[in-house]
Write a structure and sequence with these properties.
α10 runs antiparallel to α11 and α11 packs antiparallel against α12. The strands form 4 sheets. The chain has a 5-stranded antiparallel sheet with strand order 4-5-10-6-7. The protein folds into 3 domains: 45 residues, 2-Layer Sandwich (Uridine Diphospho-n-acetylenolpyruvylglucosamine Reductase, domain 2); 111 residues, Uridine Diphospho-n-acetylenolpyruvylglucosamine Reductase, domain 3 (2-Layer Sandwich); 98 residues, Enolase-like, domain 1 (2-Layer Sandwich), CATH 3.30.390.50. By secondary structure, the chain is α+β, with helices and mostly antiparallel strands. 35% of the residues lie in helices and 24% in strands. It binds flavin-adenine dinucleotide (FAD). Flavin-adenine dinucleotide binds next to β2, α6, α7, α8 and β10.
Length: 276
């Protein structure tokens, strides 16, 4: 298949990119790993592709004042290999090691994954578990959106058509917090059938799933049970998730996988504590 006819622009500045995105039917091109196949299948038919790959500084990763800022254009492979990320957000390398394959990780970007909001993708769940803030901009100005308000459900986010995701900002891991990302996929590198992103702190927890529910959200009942020191109740709470249903993977099986993964994640953290 070939894409429908489109115009192409490769702006050199952010201001130029935002002006182009204000045009009707414009779409951002980042790594192109999802958008190009969608265009080839004509599921997406943008009139104008705004290629952000030459925008300066958009792929930067920096840690300052206790905040890790990862630019939207940071490639999965760069985030996976970054010592700053390993130090301040150790959940991310655990998750990214399971995202696709090397060739796709070399092109795919943080911003592309978050903007697409695939329910099976690992990074949206990590943003929720890490309490990220997403920084977005348009010709109208900049705004900051907590991860919990950014994801609106199946392939849907708070981004307006003319907005560009600039970066994710994450509070650096605080002392006493531990992190685990576990998933089950049919083959290594496939999208998750179910995954858990867990941040466990002293009397507090943040938990998000991928591949289970159609939308991306935290699991407040399980989090409350974990904060109260009741892991069995937390695992039981995942039996009530609004799991996706289908002939390939029934909802009951997705819920079961989520429960097994949370149990394993908790055991992994406990074993690491015992070994420390
Ligand atoms: C074979 C294969 C296997 C994969 N496996 C996995 C997997 O296991 N887990 C996983 O999470 N992902 C997986 N992916 C997806 C991949 O890792 C990328 O995350 C994904 O393609 C999106 O990133 P991208 O940079 O390629 O975005 P693009 O394809 O360029 O864009 C995707 C969408 O986001 C929009 N967009 C991109 N950047 C921005 C921005 N900064 N601001 C606003 N909108 C933006 C685009 O307009 C488009 O709608 C896989 C992809 C392939 C092809």
């Amino acid at each position: 298949m070939k894409p429908a006819r489109f115009d192409y622009a490769r702006p050199a500045t952010l201001a130029e990119a935002l002006a182009l995105l204000a045009q009707p039917e414009a779409a951002v091109l980042a790594g192109g790993q999802s958008l190009m196949p969608m265009m080839n299948l004509r599921v997406a038919r943008p009139a104008l592709l705004v290629d952000i790959n030459r925008l300066p500084g958009l792929g930067e990763i920096r840690l300052a004042g206790g905040v890790l800022r990862i630019g939207a254009l940071a490639r999965h492979a760069e985030v996976l290999a970054s010592p700053l990320v390993a130090q301040a957000a150790p959940l991310l390398p655990q998750a990214l090691a399971q995202v696709a394959h090397a060739a796709i990780r070399n092109r795919g970007t943080l911003g592309g994954s978050l903007s697409l909001a695939d329910p099976a993708a690992e990074l949206p769940a990590c943003m929720l578990a890490l309490d990220a803030t997403l920084v977005v901009a348009s010709a109208r100005g900049e705004r900051r959106i907590p991860a919990g308000a950014f994801f609106h459900g199946l392939y849907s986010t708070a981004l307006a058509a003319d907005e560009l995701l600039l970066a994710a900002e994450l509070p650096a891991a605080a002392p006493g917090w531990r992190f685990a990302f576990l998933e089950v996929a049919r083959r290594h590198g496939d999208f998750a059938m179910a995954g858990v992103a867990l941040a466990l702190g002293p009397n507090a927890a943040r938990l998000a799933l991928c591949g289970v529910e159609a939308g991306q959200r935290r699991q407040p009942a399980a989090e409350a049970a974990l904060a109260a020191g009741d892991p069995a109740a937390a695992i039981a709470a995942l039996a009530s998730t609004d799991a996706m249903d289908g002939p390939d993977l029934p909802a009951a099986q997705r819920r079961h996988l989520a429960q097994v993964l949370l149990r394993r994640a908790l055991a992994q953290l406990e074993a690491a504590d015992a070994a420390a």
